[in-house]
Amino acid sequence: MRIGAIELEKPLALAPMEDVTDVSFRLICKELGVDLLYTEFASSSALVRDVASTTRKIRVTDIERPIAVQIFGGVEEPMDEAARVAEEACPDFIDVNCGCWVRKVVRRESGAGLLKNLAKFEAVVRAVLSGTKLPVTVKTRIGWDQDNIVILDVARMVEQLGVQALSVHCRTRSQGHSGAADWSWLEKLKQTVSIPIIGNGDINSPEDVKRMFETGCDGVMIGRGAIYNPWIFRQAKHYMATGELLPEATLSERVVLCIKHLLLSIDYKGQERGIIEFRKHYQGYFRGMRNVAKLRAELVRMTDPEEIIARLRRYEDELSSEPENVEL
Ligand SMILES: Cc1cc2nc3c(=O)[nH]c(=O)nc-3n(C[C@H](O)[C@H](O)[C@H](O)COP(=O)(O)O)c2cc1C
After folding, report:
1. Which of 188, 221, 242 is the last residue of a domain?
2. What's the mean pLDDT in 89-112?
3. 179 pLDDT above the threshold of 90
4. Which three-class secondary structure state does DSSP give residue 41?
5. Together in a domain, 290 and 158
6. Residues 73 and 130 grouped into a single domain
């Protein structure tokens, strides 16, 4: 598939996730084989007002390429100007978030709120296209609710506007993040438009990746599955190439990667913020393992990296000396 000058063969993408897919996590996934990255979403009005916490979010590094800056906003907001600001961060393309389900976003008729009004959806995308020379892509959901599935209309509309790829989280806004994602829409989308379609929703294993590609979609985007298992990119590629499943990451590999990720977070954000903002990841790295709640409760009180690293190594020793690692 192609986005602008970027040519990708069956790419695996890391889904944009607020407070999760910062530069440190993106670099971890890059090392583990992800092909396509996105920043966390950035509010267009905050970008235009130069709010420091938002402009920080759209910084990208060369190692991450190809990478998109993702922006969101409604018709009342300066989407063209936001696209110009996003372009200054030098991403490879700009992605417009038309799928965020949270109330404060949809109330302003942005994110998934645009699925209720396709004229406004179109106006927002048009404004972004007019503000940048970079390729523009869109990420959305299949519709507002089960009775209002509009994804085929959306696909036709964005293709006509000149959008270069469409990522589809195969849930409705009403579903939030629960209930099954309906991948059958990916097949219908491929029959409807010729721009690349990137499928998203409920990918948790290499087998899921292979099954989603069988719908005919051009790329597969992984969200929460990558938080619990950043190795999923490497595992999925190996599985698709050979049909063989790589072993799950061991506890020792989890500890090593967690420490590496923590140190990257500190490198990019400084010690205090780097440690505090990393805290949400402990749950992901050690999900399902024995005494993880106690481990996490201790780690989130710590502010010294050496102490955190020592505690993680002790956890590995504690569990390794026990016969069984995994809580059933
Ligand atoms: C914590 C979290 C934050 C998210 N933030 C964003 C975001 O900033 N932009 C976006 O387009 N989607 C965001 N999403 C949605 C994901 O990109 C993805 O569409 C969704 O999680 C479904 O994929 P999954 O089933 O693989 O997790 C977020 C999801 C989660 C769980």
Report:
1. 242
2. 97
3. yes
4. strand
5. no
6. yes
8 A C-beta contact, residue 68 and residue 92: yes
Record the tokens describing residue 20, joined without a space: 């999760």
- Taking the CA of residue 139 as reference, the ligand 1 atom at the shortest distance is 11
Same-domain status, 221 and 306: no
The residue annotated as part of the active site, out of 29, 90, 98, 100, is: 100
Task: Name which residue sits closest to atom 15 of ligand 1, judged by CA.
Answer: 17
Q: How confident is the model at residue 282 (pLDDT cuts 50, 70, 90)?
A: very high
Determine, yes or no, domain membership for 172. yes
Q: Where does ligand 1 bind, in terms of residues with CB under 6 Å?
A: 15-18, 20, 40-41, 70, 97, 99-100, 139, 169, 177, 200-203, 222-225
Q: Would you list the DSSP string of 253-268? A: HHHHHHHHHHHHHHHH
Distance 251 CA to ligand 1 centre (A): 26
Distance CA 272, CA 203 (A): 33
Rounded distance between C-alpha atoms, residue 232 and residue 246, angstroms: 10
Q: Are residues 255 and 238 in the same domain?
A: no
> Within a domain: residue 137?
yes
Strand ranges in the chain using DSSP code E only, listed in sequence order: 2-3, 6-7, 12-14, 37-43, 67-72, 93-98, 136-143, 166-172, 197-200, 219-222
Entry field: residues in the chain = 328
Q: Which of 242, 269, 289 finishes a domain?
A: 242
Residues 76, 186: one domain? yes
